[in-house]
Every structure is written in structure tokens, then in C-alpha cells.
User: What shape does this take?
Amino acid sequence: MTEYKLMKGNEALAEAAILAGCDAYFGYPITPQSEVLEYLAREMPKHNRIVMQAESEVASINMVYGAAGAGFRAMTSSSSPGISLMQEGISYIAGAELPCLLVNVNRAGPGLGTIQPGQGDYFQSTKGGGHGDYRMIVLAPASVQEMADFVFLGFDLADQYRNPVLILSDGAIGQMMEKVKFKPYTRPQTDKSSWATTGKPKTRGRNYITSLHIQPEKMEEHNKHLEEKFRKIRENEVRFEEINTSDADYLFVAYGLSARICQKAMDIARQKGIKAGLLRPITLYPYPYQRLNELASQVKMLLSVELNSGQMVEDVRLAVNGKRPVEFYGRMGGMMPTPEEIVHHLETLIQYHHVN
Amino acid sequence: MSTDLHELPVTNVEPALVCGKQEDEYEVVYHKPATMVDTAMHYCPGCAHSLVHKLIMEVVEELDIQDKTVGVAPVGCSVFAYDYMDIDMSEAAHGRACAVATGIKRLMPEKYVFTYQGDGDLAAIGIAETLHAINRGENILIVFMNNAVYGMTSGQMAPTTLPGMHTTTSPDGRDVSFYGAPIKVSELMANLPGAFFVTRQAVNNPNAVRRTKKALLNAFKYQQLHKGTCIVEIIGNCPSNWKMTPVEAAKFIDEEMVKTFPLGDIKIPAAEDLKIF
Amino acid sequence: MNSLNDCRQLEELIVAGFGGQGVLSLGMTLAYAGMVENKEISWMPSYGPEMRGGTANCIVILSENKISSPILSQFDSAIVLNQPSMDKFAPRLKPGGLLLYESGNIFKPSTREDIDIIGIPATTEALKMKNAKTMNMIMLGAYLQLKPVVQNDSILEALAKVLPEKYHHLLPINRQALELGEALAREMKTQPV
Assistant: This one.
């Protein structure tokens, strides 16, 4: 029987990486996620795995590229400014279709910003980030348990689709401690021999990893192939959680830490007789557009709550497509809204829209 | 990546009938290594890349390590290296080849891993990755093609461009007071304890080619020792961007390039390290 | 994150003071004890660029149900170890809440009348025990005497887990500190505050 452990989100993620069979981790220190590198620097060698502190995030992501290209389970983690540095490599990884796991423990920006939690990297994570036509599967954990669970899921999805997967967390989820249970895990079989650069035996043609397709016809063909893959991902991998939506008049939409705060706001609102519900997107790409559109028919108003100036709200508006008012409430700079503050804002909006 | 996405036109030249002999009546005195892909190259006449590609593949063939070799191609003229070398290869983002090679080699320490990088790729945008890989003593071979110019983007100034040398971005000649002197990468890197074998060679005449081949052969073999990084710098001819004929370019190396980049070994392994050979 | 019809948690606590006073480990010990008892728990630290000397705090939530927000603006209890924390968090206690403070470091406690305010001379007592670092455990002992949110045994088990093994020779003195805190709080309780 597996026992609960008390761990920081970052540590749970690191432990999960070991249990998920991560062969190699390359990273560079940055607050608030240095615990991942520290934990793995201590633990990975015990399992004969590779862990390396690279000279920069630019080097880290390219080491991941090399290791993933050779068919190994590889990952890196960083926080916002470091993830910005990795964007070039991420674009190449997506173009070359290399499965790997990336982790962004989001802090507030732009620029050097602050080391406090934020959700300002939503656009960067879900709309590209690097250059060219590509998408990453983006998983948004809202608890220490999910920090661990999504490592297994993330690696599996990466292998399944030959695509980078990003865990988009934040400084609070990374630094907080909760109890966590590591469930038994069976790694799905994936055969990478048809493309991994492991050395060419006489029995097969050469494998090469590239994102270069110099002829426009070939490039478009590759783009279409990628898009077909992203279509499958949109069809099959949408994940979300609903709480109290069946009778909700007002719907909070929030992910990660914001969703936790909104859950409390929802409870306070219900005590006041306001029927609030919560939709928490778990995958930020693919996004639960369809379910939000269905729920929009049933509620009077939607309120997107984020630790930024309004990023995911654009996807909520796309989903709702004008059916109902979509409002936004956010705090920035590492400041976090309190549940009471959110309820107060909801009440004000109900008055404003005369939707009570 | 599947191979079919990436085919270049295959040379399909009918064997010429000379002196009325059929092809199979000739005695074969030379053939290119079986580790080369049978295809036309995109390189300019007189370019060093095609020759160095072949030398590397000869070494791979002679050591019989095709199934144990992984190459990393750069961004630059040789970005298509994997179209010509019949081995597993990975393209790297501009300058990042040493980081990619680190990722490959650390996971597969028994494999022979090399990067193939030009001067813009290695000495400008990628110098940090290069320096740190060497400083860690990564057991890889860095083949550093130095032709003092950005080739693929057609002739801009490189970190290794000679003082006074005319390029499209130094039209009045490289001004050392403005851009500094050319970086002598190999001398710089040889100072790092992680560097095991550092040499500078050329391929502008038959003797130079033989010496380069020897250096590459040794550098590949040294990977078995796990003693550190090997750097084989090759002064490459670039007639197109030097605005010269191939013959003039070959002479230019002997007359001008070697003044800044003298040929020869810069750091050689200690005899005791080579005992097992 | 299951549905929560009842948003009340068992205990919503803030621990605050200077870095180096053992603020985070106090909270962690309590959180661990909660886990030993199969409670739901969360421990949310403030974190900053400074390793020592800055302000530090952590929010500890114990609950029978799944915990929603780990970030709170109002608390059932506060353990404050310096004056800035007193000034900052005393106004954020819910009416009827418990404000426990370290009286050696804090000279101007809150004047609120709708909460219980109790000072513990934990620093002085810790110095008497010849180990200033036990101050936080004295405070924890006092807190648990006033708010027995977890069992004594659970705390002792937690202590062994939170304290790295190389410091396990310090387990007895930490236990003593806890007991001393409990005793001090019992005395305070019997006196008019």
C-alpha cells in the first residue's frame, strides 16, 4: 500500500520524474523551481540516471533535444524568464517531433519580474511561444498531487504524440506542501527505433532528427502533418474538472492556483445564496471550448479569474462566442486575490449586468 | 524524420563509355566510402565541406563504427550534412550543437558522437555551449570548419574573419579597432582542462588532406578513452564567398589564413593516455 | 479537488516571524502531524530572495475535507514571532480567533478585544534550556495546548520526520520544548489575559 508523503510541489514533481522513468534531466537554477534540480541532483544518480546543471536554459533545452532525439525520456524545468530563453529550442523540438517534458513554474513578469507566483505565461504556453506553427500539450496542475500525476501523464502523452508536453505550474503550487501519493505506474510501450538517433545498423536506413524542410512543398506537407496531429490532440485530450456546475448561475473559469482560490470563493458565494460553479481547465491546450460553450447556455455569466491581466479570458470568450457576458478578474505581480475579493467582484458584476 | 521527406535529387549519370570499355572492365582504384549517401551535394565547386564530409565517413567506415556513430549538424552551409553522411544524425539549432551532442553522449556514452560546426555557429552564437561542453570534458569530437566567413547567408563577417578581410558586412575590410581581432577558438579552448586533443588542419592540398584524415581518425579513436573533448579545426576553402577561383582559394589559405590560424597540433594527449593504442 | 459543500476548515493558521526563527518548520511539523492523522493539509510558505533575516510566514490549513484555497486572507489562529508580523496579521484574525505571540520579541501586542491574545516568553524559556532554536517548538506546544487540533503523539511522530536524521539527537530537547510550551500556555490560561 502506497503511503502519503508531505512534499513541496516541486519535489513531488521531481520524485514523479524518477518514478516515471525519466532518463535525463537538464536544468539551470531559477527561483521558484530550483528544488527540482536540487532534488534530482541528489536522487537521479542513485538510479543511474543523468542529471546535469547546464550553463544556461538555452543549453538545457538543447541537451533535452539531443537526449530525446536519441529516444530517451528527457525533461527540463524552469521558471518564466528561463522558459523564454528556451523558446527557440522548444520550437525545434516541436518541429522535429521529439517527445519530452517541460515544466514552467510560472512567476510574475514581464522581464525579470518577481519570483512570486503568476499566470502571465498563458499566452506563451498555449499560443506558441517560439516561432512557427506548433502547439504543446499544456497541463495545469492545481495541487501537489497533480504536480506528481501530470509528470506520468505528460511523459506518456509526449511519447504517444511525439510532441513536447508542458506542465504549467506556478510559484505557489511549486512551493506549497501537501500530501501526495505516488500511484503504481506502468509505462506504456513505445517503439522509438524508427526515428531515434542511436547509431545506424546495416539493417535500416539512417535516422535523422530535423525540423528543416527547405522545399516549400515539403515544409507545407510537414506543417499539415503536424496540424493533423494537433487536431487529434484537440479531439482526444481535452481535460477539465467541473465543480457545482449542474445548478450554477454563475461560472468561475480558472486554472491552477486560481482555481483553488475560486473554489473557496464559490463556497463563500453559495453560503450567501449565489449559485456559483467552477470549471477548471486541466489542459490549457487543448482547451475545453466545447464544454464551456455548453455551460454558457445554462449560466447567466462567466468570470475568468487569473493571476495576470487577462489572457485565458480570450479563450473563454472564444468558447462562449457572445452567448453570455464573459468577465475577467485578475491580480498581477505576484499578488493573489483572496476568495472574499473574488466574491465581492462577482457580486458587483451581477449588479452591473442585472443578471441576478 | 522519415527519409522520404528529405530527398535531394540523386545523381543518375550513365557510365561513360571510354575506349570502348564497359564499366565492369575497369579496375577500381578508388571509391567513396560506403558510409556516404550516393547523391549530388549542394556545395560549391572547391568547397571544403564535401571533402571533409568524405574524410569523416572514411574514418567511420575504417573504424567500422557506422552503427555506433551519431553526428550533429549545425546551421550553416553544412546544415544538410545528414543528407550526405549515411549515419544517424541530428540537426541542431544555430550554435547549439555541443549542447545537443552532450544530451546524446551522456545518455549513450558508448557511442561515437561528433558535431560538425562552422565558425559562425561555433565561434559566435554557440561559443558558450562550445566552451562549457569542452570544459566539462564531454567525450565528443568537435569538427570545427573555419572559413572565416558566414557561408550559407552568403558572405558576412564571422568572428574568425581576418583583419582587413572584405565581406558583405565589412565592405571596407574587417576593422579590428571596431570588431576586435579574429577569435582563435582552438588556442582558446585548448586552455581548458577538458580539452584532450586540439589540432588545426586544412584540406587545400593532398598532404593537408592526409593530415586532416589522420587527425580525424585519431580524434574518433580517442573517444574510446573517455578523457575529454577532441577539437579538429579545419581551415576550409570558401571560393564563392572569398570571390576567388578554387585554385586561388587554396592558395589564399597557405598565404593568408595560416598567418592568423597557423596549422598544426595545439594540444596533444599525453603519451600515457594513449598507451592502450 | 472534490466538491466542498462546507467550506469550513478545521483550522486556518498563519505562522509569521523573521527568517531563522523556525517559522516554516513550526508550520511543517503541524502539517505533518495532520497528515499522520489522515487529515487534509496544506502548507503554503511565503518565499523570498533572502535566505535568512527577512520576514517569513506560512499558512497551514488542517481539514477533514479537501482543501480549496491554500491562500487565505483571514485566519482562525496566528502564531506571531516578531512585531511586524503582529502588526500585519493581528487585524486578519477572524472574530473569536486566537493570537499567540512571542512576548520577548513583541512589545506592542494587538489591542483587539474580539480575539484571544496570549503572549508566551518562549525566547527566554528557550535560552534557559540552552538552545535558542527550540523557541518555535515552545510556541507550537503552547498553541496545541490552546488549540488541540492534532494529538500529542502525532506531533512527536511528525517531529521525527521533519527533523533531518542527522539532528535526531535533538529530538528529546524538542520534545521538552513542546511540553514546556504546553505548561506555559496552561498557566496563561488560568490567569486573566
User: Anything to note?
Assistant: Confidence is low (pLDDT under 50) at residues 1-6 of chain B. Chain B touches chain A at residues 1-3, 5-6, 37, 66-70, 72-73, 79-80, 82, 85-93, 96, 99-108, 111, 128-129, 132 (CB under 8 Å). The domain at 3-274 of chain B is CATH 3.40.50.970 (Rossmann fold). Strands of chain B lie at 69-73, 88-91, 112-118, 141-146, 149-150, 156-157, 195-202, 229-235, 264-267.
